Automatic annotation (TrEMBL):
This is Cyclic nucleotide-binding protein. InterPro entries: DUF1003. The chain crosses the membrane at residues 111-134, 149-170. The keyword Transmembrane helix applies. It comes from the Bacteria.
Length: 241
């Protein structure tokens, strides 16, 4: 094929120098398929001039740009739907629990908070020691609970019996807080996972399709500019002649 000085263009049937075009075998698969769509009987040994090849190159560039644009818009629509589909509102746990507190629940929280502090331990130890010293040494003439301090044991038992359910009430509220936090975390993680899956699809599209297409488009642009430059040079020579 390269030994021929001229070749016949498959589009207009005119004779051209082989340097003024390309054979179909030298074209990219996409452009060659476009030529074959218009000329089904075309063979890879057929020739197409640069002027008509320019049209197919421009069409191929437009097709790749439109395909990438449609795919990007499709992924963006999926991402938008994913962000709008979950109508679950993240609950402010502290605000919700604070608004729903009853008087008894507030008391239970305060009792549980104080009962688990060093202040409570200090006060409790002080009361126990004072109780035992007063009744053992009969200070100030007071002697209302002899050893083994049965009344003290009764008071401690009553305090424990009352304190335990109050602390359990506060713990139940803590369990409700944990449940609401877990529910919030579940919905956030589910939504994030869905969005990340779509973003991965977008990145895959960029790396597998759009970036190779961009490089192919740049290559075609260079070829188109070279063809335009050649045609301008031919027109300039025709005018000068």
């Amino acid at each position: 094929m390269s030994e021929k000085l001229t070749a016949t263009c498959i589009v207009d049937g005119r004779e051209y120098q082989v340097t003024e075009g390309l054979y179909l075998a030298d074209l990219s698969t996409a452009i060659r398929q476009r030529v074959k769509q218009d000329y089904p009987k075309a063979k890879i040994t057929d020739f197409i001039c640069g002027h008509h090849l320019l049209k197919y190159r421009l069409a191929s560039v437009d097709a790749m740009i439109n395909a990438d644009l449609k795919q990007s818009q499709k992924i963006n629509r999926k991402l938008t739907r994913a962000m709008q589909s979950d109508d679950y509102e993240i609950t402010d746990v502290n605000e919700t629990l604070t608004k729903s507190l009853s008087f008894g629940e507030r008391v239970a929280d305060n009792v549980a908070r104080f009962g688990g502090s060093w202040g409570f331990i200090g006060v409790f130890v002080f009361v126990l020691v004072a109780w035992m010293l007063i009744n053992s040494l009969q200070l100030f003439g007071i002697h209302f609970d002899e050893y083994p301090y049965i009344l003290l044991n009764l008071c401690l038992s009553c305090i424990s019996a009352i304190q335990a359910p109050i602390i359990m009430m506060s713990q139940n509220r803590s369990a409700d807080r944990d449940r609401m936090d877990a529910e919030n975390d579940f919905h956030v993680n589910l939504k994030s996972e869905h969005e990340l899956r779509i973003l991965h699809a977008k990145l895959d599209h960029l790396s597998q399709n759009q970036i190779p297409h961009t490089l192919e488009i740049e290559k075609l642009q260079i070829e188109i500019l070279a063809e335009i430059r050649t045609e301008l040079a031919d027109l300039r020579r025709e005018r000068e002649s």
